[in-house]
# Entry
Amino acid sequence: MASIICRGKLYVPFLLTLIVPGVIGCSCLNGAAAIKPEPATPQPVVVYTYKVVNTFPHDREAYTQGLAFDNGSLYEGTGGYASSSIRKVDLESGRVLQEYKLPTRYFGEGITLYKGTIIQLTWKSNTGFVYDRDSLNLLREFSYPTEGWGITYDGNRIVMSDGTSNLYFLDPQNFNTTGYIEVHDKNGPVNKLNELEYINGKLLANVWGTANIVIIEPVDGSVTGWIDLSGLLDTGYYNNHVDVLNGIAYDAKTGRMFVTGKLWPLLFEIIPAAK
# Structure
């Protein structure tokens, strides 16, 4: 498959091979069935490495839990009790342009963008928040019965992780759970699914505590690839306090992919490339 040129940059086929508000009621799992389609022909699992295209400053006090990018703007959700926030960030400088700080009892988690809003999860409070994208004003809350880890929007449904091998599909209007899949490869369930991003028909998830991003077929939860980001952050930075890789954002207009980590001083634009 041919590569593509986007705004003067060369992009490898990876991004193409991913196949071309008040309190809302509880998003209960009762009645939400696991999605178990007819077995499909297994797809080959591809392991990718990466090429760094650009490096940008990142607030090293930001305990990154979620990233999103749209229309030239980077949005970030941060975690930690008494330090969780939702932010709009200037990509080039890393400067925080706008910020809403969560009440101290909440530990912020993943974020996603949906129709002029930002949706943010919390870890153990069973509570999510919906903000106005422009002002970051809190519009409403919603609830869910699991822990909250990662979240993304696939164009029809909200997809949410809870740190297990399950991904839950939520109605974006009322946040009711409509179904779920178990993510698995040839060795069985893939656990500790964290930050999520939807890219051209595939779900990408950070696997907590590792340098890996897993590529998931949303129809049945099968793993179709891995991105190994080992060595992305120079070991010299580990003399200071940094945490694990976490955070994936995708610019659909240009095909750019961004990744970072918790308390990392840098955010990277990368191109995954098959090993």
Q: What stands out?
A: The CA atoms of residues 18 and 133 lie 27 Å apart.
